[in-house]
Amino acid sequence: MSGRWLWKAALAVVCLLGVAALTVDYFTSREVRREYRESAAEQAAASAGGAAPASFDGRMARIRATILLSTLLGFLPAVAVAALAALRMSRRFRATMKRKVEQFEREHAELERVERVRKDFVINVSHELRTPLASIQGYTETLLDGALSDPENNVRFLKIIRHNAERLARITEDLLTLSRIEQKRQKFEFEPHPVESLLEEALDLMRPIAERSRIALELSPPAAAAEAWCDGEAVSQILSNLLDNAIKYTPAGGRITIGATPGDKFVELWVRDTGIGIPPEELPRLFERFYRVDKARSRELGGTGLGLSIVKHLVAAHGGSARVESRLNEGSTFYFTLPCAEAARRGEPDAEFTAS
Ligand SMILES: Nc1ncnc2c1ncn2[C@@H]1O[C@H](COP(=O)(O)OP(=O)(O)OP(=O)(O)O)[C@@H](O)[C@H]1O
Ligand SMILES: [Mg+2]
Fold first, then answer.
1. Atom of ligand 1 nearest to the CA of 295
2. CA-to-CA separations, 202 to 150, 246, 274, in angstroms, rounded
3. Residue 354: which residues within 8 A CB-CB, separation 6 or more?
4. Cα R_g (the chain), whole angstroms
5. Which residues crowd ion ligand 2, with CB under 5 Å?
6. Closest-lying ligand 1 atom to the alpha carbon of residue 292
7. Predicted local distance difference test score (pLDDT) of residue 343
8. Are the beta carbons of 227 and 192 closer than 8 angstroms?
9. Rounded to an integer, what distance in angstroms lies between the CA atom of residue 113 and that of residue 111?
């Protein structure tokens, strides 16, 4: 029998005992009144010369025993059940309070984390903007102070200014992209796309860059034909970011392979390289904004450190997830999932995205 039914049965028994005790008390008090009347009448008869009355004390002792028994039967179990109920309630109250405190602590920690991320973000943005801005300011002043008429350096200084202005434009463009996706202002056109064509288009787009870096770019055809439910533009942006990284962080002579593994609800696309790899301790933070394993190297290569963050947000907007596996000096594989068109038609994946 479950705890709740046990309590109900106990309460029913206590109620029955209480009613029984009240009934016994009612009849007993009637008997007391009758005994008094009879005893008074017998006393009166005895004093008028009749028979001696039966012991009044003896009768009262019997009545007292009856009252005591009915009280014990009716009252004590009620007290016991009430005490147990109070104990049970206090236990429940303590458990509820403990749960509430734990939930409050979790929410508090999450708020602290969000606040920390926000502060870090402001610091990072200022830092990222300050360096190119300072450079533009410095070279402009140098030119105004006379370097403009220095034929040896003026063009070089102007090129540096242009390079930094382009960097600023890239950072602001990436930040705006991120904010558009995060605030769900980015418009996505979700429709079925054959996965193999998505991969081929991305390869065609990046092949000239890979060839310039003398890196082989290959498609590993998916084992089975699959269609993804996605925005073609967004997937092209995801794959370009991953291929751009793979090319940047793979030395000449290396190899990059892309492919896909169709699943039941999701299809997993992947980009594998034989590049420099990533130390294991850096992997958990890799998708954070501005996070770079080697800041100087990334800047040198024109990186803003926002590429993977954009990838993560675009993938999440499709209802998928992104992850990475890597071995230092051996290479990395970046994976991301997209909903299968068939499953999306059946409404199976978490389809928040299908509405937009
Ligand atoms: N395939 C890879 N191999 C080795 N390291 C990588 C690879 N992809 C990313 N990384 C590391 O992750 C960091 C973050 O990548 P992300 O794409 O976000 O920034 P980025 O490439 O430096 O700049 P951006 O993409 O904005 O031009 C890189 O700086 C690099 O250290
Ligand atoms: Mg990148």
1. 29
2. 45, 13, 19
3. 190, 229, 344, 347
4. 42
5. 245, 307
6. 29
7. 81
8. yes
9. 5
Binding pocket residue ranges, ligand 1, CB within 6 Å: 241, 245-246, 249, 273, 275-276, 278, 286, 291-294, 298, 303-309, 332
Ligand 1: distance of its center to the CA of 10 in Å?
A: 68
- For 34-81, how does the pLDDT look when each residue is reduced to its tens digit (9 = 90+)? 877 777 777 777 777 665 556 667 767 777 787 788 777 777 777 888
Q: What tokens were used for 57?
A: 């004390």
- For a substitution probing ligand 1, which of 298, 304, 313, 328 has the most ligand atoms within 8 Å of its CB? 298
User: Closest Cα to atom 27, ligand 1: which residue?
Assistant: 303
- Report yes or no on whether pTM surpasses 0.90: no
User: How far away, in angstroms, is 113 Cα from ligand 2 center?
Assistant: 25
Ramachandran region, residue 350 (left: φ > 0; alpha: ψ -120 to 50; beta: rest): beta
Q: Measured between alpha carbons, how far is 204 from 217 in angstroms, rounded to an integer?
A: 10
Are the beta carbons of 38 and 59 closer than 8 angstroms? no
Sort 200 into a burial class: Cβ within 10 Å, 0-12 / 13-18 / 19+: middle
